[in-house]
Amino acid sequence: MSKMIIIDNSCLSYALNIDNGVPILPYYDSERDEELKHLTYYLNCLVEQGVEDVRVHNREAFGLMKLKEGEEEARRNGEDKDENGAKLDRLALKSVDSEQEVNRLQKAAGNP
Q1: Predicted confidence (pLDDT) per residue in 2-31, tens digit
Q2: Which of 46, 64, 74, 100 is the most exposed, fewest CB within 10 Å of its CB?
Q3: Model confidence, pTM
Q4: Domain residue ranges in the chain
């Protein structure tokens, strides 16, 4: 499992192995779509850095486990789904490294 990566736009695809997951935005036939460029860059970085365990690197890069833990905590606390979703969105944005990447993700999601 240390060398396996699961790339998908649905986190359900890698929910049981969340640290192996690499999220990607869905493609909607747009000439401005750059997800594959970003994915290629990320994968090349893993190779160039000689990463031994992709799970450790993915955990740091994407913070998906934080999202999962936040969702579980919200369920335990009986929080409203919409409120929980907003908290998860904020946490997801915090896990993104650069302001440029945040802007790109927001535009892709239709939130300029």
Answers
A1: 999 999 988 888 888 999 999 998 888 888
A2: 100
A3: 0.60
A4: 1-62, 63-112
CB environment 23-55: b (16+ within 10 A), e (fewer): beeeeeeeeeeebeeebeebeeebeeeeeeebb
Handedness of CA 39, 67, 97, 99 (dihedral sign): positive
Quote the tokens at residue 8. 């998908």
One-character DSSP codes across 50-93: T-S-HHHHHHHHH-HHHHHHHHHHHHHTT--HHHHHHHHHHHHH
Digit-coded pLDDT (tens) for 58-111? 988 888 877 667 666 766 777 654 544 554 455 444 444 445 555 555 555 555
Alpha-carbon dihedral angle through residues 69, 70, 75, 80, given to the nearest 10 degrees: -160
Q: How far apart are CA 43 and CA 109, in angstroms?
A: 23
Tokens found for residue 112:
């300029």
